[in-house]
């Protein structure tokens, strides 16, 4: 979502003559679009700011000016504190106020005090943003839903991104057509709770579900692949499960975070479902789309997590079988209920559990990638690999696929015969 917001910041700043730059040296302004989800992400902001300060100082020694801004969820959560700690920062804003960037830049240029914009606007920011103009290339992100009303007890999102909101369907389809005109063949629909989507369709109280939106999007000529992320198990509705079996453009991959396999911990996390519901969803998905690849997020060491709770998570992983997964040590986030729970887990225990969980997930991930060896898969090539002449793309099941040669295939979908399967990728040869 931050990638999407960053592209939209380019759109907002373009009329003022700003264009994206690859280096600090060339930049008249640096915006850090930040993440507050875990402590580590937040720490990175301050270490990056230290480096940017040096750039700013050497610019001003040479007589030129560089504006420094902190946007995103760290901006939202820390506000003016950032300027106190790093006085060379000119602007701080949150994820809902970046549409005001031109005005903030003008104020900062005039140098009249701190520029801090943290209000959640009455009018949705999407209505204040210009049309998309900056192409995202062959694979594009499109935010359709934002914010969250679920208040999981570990999570900052409801406080930093605000209340749940779904964009009207017509606006999304219009943006999708623009993205396709700009070269997109794949669109990933984004939302903190994307499957809670219920967009206005201009017919009174009736709204479109995510499945309705996917159905409409599939009619957009030139668009070949649809994905969506991130979903909550509670909102995996029947129509959404069923469209996985009927819509060929919807890719056979689903990121469905469960966080824990223990009902006790799920309850403490305020996830509002049990492990059983998750298993049931997976069964129903596999009935309509037997080859669907699954991925999840896991938190280890949530306050009060016992050895048995952790084993329940390990057993859930064994039972489901993942194509990939993301896992994190529980991180105390200021202002969230779990952060003040007295039963915090020892750091060493967290580390040990994370290592065990990741070893299991990595085993599954490698086996999943190796299961494709000898098969031919469809790959959307979108970038160069690290090695000379190497091209990198995404398979339908979301794996990274490397081939050598075939430079002309960038931006196209091609058949690839898989020759090797590894932890984070597969390699192959282009067929024909
Ligand atoms: N809306 C999604 C998740 C968004 S946050 C959902 O409900 O699943 C992305 C991931 O970050 C979460 O799935 C969770 O695994 C992780 N995360 C969020 N807060 C965390 C915290 N305080 N400590 C550790 N991991 C956290
Ligand atoms: Fe955070 Fe996701 Fe829970 Fe919302 S549903 S509070 S975004 S983890």
Classify the beta-strand content into a percent band: 15-25%
Rg estimate, integer Å: 23 Å
Largest sheet: 5 strands, mixed, barrel
Bound molecules: S-adenosyl-L-homocysteine, iron/sulfur cluster
Kindly identify the CATH topology of the largest domain: pyruvate-formate lyase- activating enzyme
**Which percent range fits the helix content?**
25-40%
Principal-axes shape call = globular
CA(first)-CA(last) distance = 36 Å
Number of helices: 14
Give the domain tally: 3
Indicate the mean pLDDT: 95
Number of DSSP strand runs = 19
The strands making up the biggest β-sheet line up spatially as 15-16-17-19-18
> So what's the CATH class of the largest domain?
Alpha Beta
Going by CATH, the homologous superfamily of the largest domain would be tm_1862 like domain
Q: In CATH terms, what is the architecture of the largest domain?
A: Alpha-Beta Horseshoe
Characterize the structure shown:
It is a single chain. The chain has 14 helices and 19 strands. The chain is an alpha/beta fold. The protein folds into 3 domains: 119 residues, Methylthiotransferase, N-terminal domain (Rossmann fold, 3-Layer(aba) Sandwich); 236 residues, pyruvate-formate lyase- activating enzyme, CATH 3.80.30; 55 residues, Beta Barrel (OB fold (Dihydrolipoamide Acetyltransferase, E2P)), CATH 2.40.50. The strands form 6 sheets. Strands 15-16-17-19-18 form a 5-stranded mixed β-barrel. Helix 9 packs parallel to helix 10 and helix 10 packs parallel to helix 12. The longest helix has 24 residues. The protein starts with a helix and ends with a strand. The chain binds S-adenosyl-L-homocysteine and iron/sulfur cluster (SF4). The site of iron/sulfur cluster has 10 residues, from helix 7.
């Amino acid at each position: 979502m931050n990638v999407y917001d960053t592209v939209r910041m380019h759109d907002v700043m373009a009329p003022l003559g700003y264009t994206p730059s690859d280096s600090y040296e060339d930049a008249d302004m640096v915006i850090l679009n930040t993440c507050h989800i875990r402590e580590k992400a937040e720490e990175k902001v301050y270490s990056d700011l230290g480096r940017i300060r040096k750039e700013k100082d050497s610019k001003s020694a040479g007589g030129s000016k560089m504006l420094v801004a902190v946007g995103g969820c760290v901006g939202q959560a820390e506000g003016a504190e950032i300027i106190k700690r790093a006085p060379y920062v000119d602007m701080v804003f949150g994820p809902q106020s970046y549409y005001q960037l031109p005005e903030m830049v003008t104020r900062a240029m005039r140098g009249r005090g701190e520029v801090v914009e943290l209000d959640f606007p009455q009018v949705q920011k999407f209505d204040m943003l210009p049309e998309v103009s900056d192409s995202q290339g062959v694979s594009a992100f499109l935010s359709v839903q934002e914010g969250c009303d679920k208040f999981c007890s570990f999570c900052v999102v409801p406080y930093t991104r605000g209340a749940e909101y779904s964009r009207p369907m017509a606006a999304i389809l219009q943006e999708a057509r623009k993205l396709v005109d700009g070269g997109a063949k794949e669109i990933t629909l984004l939302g903190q709770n994307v499957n809670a989507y219920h967009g206005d369709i201009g017919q009174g109280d009736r709204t479109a579900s995510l499945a309705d939106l996917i159905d409409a999007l599939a009619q957009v000529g030139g668009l070949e692949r649809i994905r969506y992320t991130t979903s909550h198990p509670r909102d995996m509705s029947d129509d959404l499960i069923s469209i996985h079996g009927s819509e060929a453009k919807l890719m056979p991959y689903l990121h469905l975070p469960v966080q824990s396999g223990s009902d006790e911990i799920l309850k403490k996390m305020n996830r509002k479902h049990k492990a059983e519901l998750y298993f049931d969803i997976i069964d129903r998905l596999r009935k309509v789309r037997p080859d669907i690849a699954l991925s999840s997020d896991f938190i280890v060491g949530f306050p009060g997590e016992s050895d048995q709770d952790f084993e329940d998570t390990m057993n859930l992983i064994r039972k489901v079988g993942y194509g990939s997964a993301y896992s994190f040590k529980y991180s105390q986030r200021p202002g969230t209920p779990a952060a003040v729970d007295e039963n915090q887990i020892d750091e060493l225990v967290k580390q040990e559990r994370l290592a065990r969980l990741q070893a299991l997930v990595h085993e599954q991930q490698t086996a999943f990638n190796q299961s494709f060896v000898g098969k031919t898969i469809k790959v959307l090539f979108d970038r160069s690999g690290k090695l000379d002449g190497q091209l990198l793309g995404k398979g339908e099941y979301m794996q990274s696929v490397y081939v050598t040669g075939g430079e002309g295939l960038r931006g196209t979908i091609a058949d690839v015969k898989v020759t090797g399967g590894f932890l984070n990728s597969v390699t192959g040869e282009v067929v024909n």
